[in-house]
Design goal:
Layout (H helix, E strand, L loop, with lengths): L1 E3 L2 H6 L1 H31 L10 H5 L2 H23 L5 H26 L7 H30 L8 H6 L8 E3 L6 H21 L1 H24 L4 E4 L4 E3 L2 E11 L12 E11 L5 E2 L5 E5 L2 E3 L20 E2 L4 E10 L7 E13 L2 E13 L6 E6 L3 E3 L9 E10 L1 E8 L14 E8 L9 E10 L11 H8 E7 L2 E5 L12 E6 L10 E6 L2 E6 L7
Parallel strand pairs: 3-13, 14-24
Antiparallel strand pairs: 1-2, 4-5, 5-6, 6-11, 7-10, 8-9, 8-12, 12-13, 15-16, 16-19, 17-18, 19-22, 20-21, 20-23, 23-24
Length: 542
């Protein structure tokens, strides 16, 4: 094969080559800034992603790899030229080493971004990659300035290529023949020559190469320390999102209670009820192990009891999902049984997220979510009269409002409602549809409860509450009961709710036959530890 020596071509196009290198390394610097910004946003957004698809091609495109390879080729060509012309090559060797390391770094970052399709990055790794990306970016600013100077002129100091261009000889572009039938002696000679030249280059650039090696060594030690050997027990407060594997977690609320949802009290202890929001940010459904969320109170560690969720229908879904589908949120209750001696003490959720090594032994790394003190709920009582508006704020009913306007006690109650086939479920004064008359009577098995107490109400449910409380019957049946006095004793009547579904201005309860308007009757709403008492006795004077 016949080739020409490239020296004359490289000398004549020295400025152009540097200008091309300037464009290429500027492109690399621009992509580096985008990568740094991505990791900054990822960290500031509590390790969540709007989308995880296509991140690798977006931030580390194929063009970035090709650009880096072309830069390396150009630099190698310039090193050969400068060495041939006995010009300084130290900075070009530094650039060659830098962009080789840069190529490996973007290859690693590309794989990390690709892995975000399936799992999230750990907080420590995310911060390390962000910091290292910044360190990698800084030298590019120097190289851009250095190459820019070389691209605009060379008639200064040691880089006097004007005279080199004038002195270009036939030898700089002469043809030479390459034979691929190398004899073994020639091959050995080439290898030995390469070894000698590499040794020479190392001696000439020993200081710079040593500094680069020291920096790489220190960075490696830092990464190993933070990711393997350091016991990093990360602490969070409630409401702060954290990630683990494929999930973003957020413990939004926790309370200590011995109240059931209807306000009655558990006899056998207290419970810590925590609300956990889980989001699967990966591209595939993933299973979750709830046992990794341990409640820690002093030296006691307690696992959640998922079977307790059915006892808290007002706050928890009775079914706890084992698998979280992709890109979805789930709100899950984790309930921990505790004893009376554990209340009024600091508590936290402990989540294991790996291991660390200390003196040859493995220990667990944990995240702690501070829940504050395990202070039990106290009973809160609010009193109302007929006509007062009750707002169930700070309960599961949200901004639901009810107004008890009037009531009556009767054996049978007649009411009317309207049915309209063409009203799409809506009626108005001018379009009520067909009027239907109906009645309510008690037909239960309890022969002592053959009276009705009918409340005329105004009911405005919170649109954000779950559907079973949208109608007044859901509120009455779950949370309301009658309190009355008889024989100088207070009695409770939690009997069947008979509120019809086709009206919203009535609430009907069956009551014992002996209750009379003179029995100091009260309507009580009991929601967990909050008691709303409506005094009905003022009707006695009417």
């Amino acid at each position: 094969m016949i080739l020409k020596k490239p020296y004359a071509f490289l000398i004549k196009n020295f400025k152009l080559i540097h200008f091309l290198i300037l464009l290429l390394i500027s492109f690399c610097a621009f992509r580096s800034v985008l990568i740094i910004n991505f990791f900054n946003e990822y960290i500031n957004n509590n390790y969540q992603l709007v989308t995880s698809f296509g991140l690798s091609s977006q931030y580390t495109p194929f063009a970035l790899f090709i650009t880096t390879i072309i830069i390396i080729i150009f630099i190698i060509a310039l090193i050969i030229l400068l060495n041939h012309k006995k010009k300084p090559i130290k900075l070009y060797i530094a650039m060659l080493i830098y962009y080789f390391v840069y190529f490996l770094c973007i290859l690693y970052i590309s794989n990390l971004l690709e892995s975000l399709n399936y799992s999230l990055l750990a907080p420590t790794l995310s911060r390390n990659i962000r910091d290292i990306s910044i360190l990698i970016f800084i030298p590019q600013l120097f190289f851009i300035s250095y190459v820019f100077i070389r691209a605009v002129g060379f008639d200064f100091r040691k880089f006097d290529f004007v005279s080199d261009i004038k002195q270009t000889t036939y030898e700089d572009s002469e043809e030479f023949e390459i034979s691929f039938d190398l004899e073994s002696n020639k091959a050995k000679t080439m290898i030995n020559r390469f070894k000698r030249e590499m040794a020479y280059y190392f001696k000439e650039n020993r200081f710079m190469l040593t500094m680069i090696g020291v920096v790489i060594f220190i960075l490696s030690l830092v990464l190993i320390y933070f990711n393997v050997y350091r016991n990093e027990d990360t602490k969070y407060e409630m409401g702060v999102k954290f990630i683990l594997d494929k999930f973003v977690f957020n413990i939004t609320h926790a309370e200590v209670t011995n109240f059931k949802s209807d306000g009655t009290i558990y006899e056998n202890g207290y419970y810590v009820v925590s609300n956990l929001n889980v989001k699967n940010n990966s591209a595939v459904p993933a299973k979750i192990d709830y046992n990794m969320f341990k409640l820690k109170i002093e030296d006691k560690v307690i696992s959640p009891d998922l079977n307790l969720n059915k006892h808290y229908p007002d706050e928890c879904s009775p079914v706890v999902p084992e698998t979280i589908t992709t890109k979805t949120d789930e709100n899950i209750c984790l309930i921990y049984p505790i004893t009376k001696d554990m209340i009024n003490k600091k508590m936290a959720i402990r989540v294991n997220h790996g291991v660390f090594i200390d003196k040859g032994k493995e220990f667990s790394k944990n995240m702690y979510i501070n829940l504050g003190k395990s202070i039990p709920q106290e009973l809160e009582i609010k009193n109302y009269n007929l006509g007062d508006e009750i707002v169930f704020e700070d309960t599961l009913l949200g901004n639901t409002r009810i107004n008890i306007i009037d009531y009556e006690i009767t054996q049978k109650y007649f009411y009317k409602y309207y049915v309209c086939d063409n009203c799409n479920g809506e009626t108005s004064e001018g379009n009520k549809g067909k009027e239907i008359m109906d009645s309510i009577t008690y037909n239960g098995k309890d022969i002592t409860a053959n009276k009705l107490i009918v409340f005329h109400i105004k009911y405005n449910p919170d649109n954000n509450v779950i559907n079973k409380y949208k109608h007044v019957s859901g509120l009455i049946d779950l949370f309301a009961y009658i309190e009355y006095e008889m024989d100088n004793k207070t009695h409770l009547s939690k009997t069947s709710g008979l509120t019809p579904q086709n009206v919203n201005n009535l609430a009907v309860l069956s009551i014992p036959n002996q209750i009379d308007i003179k029995n100091n009757i009260k309507l009580v709403f009991m929601i967990r530890n909050k008691k709303y008492v409506v005094n009905l006795t003022e009707k006695q004077g009417n």
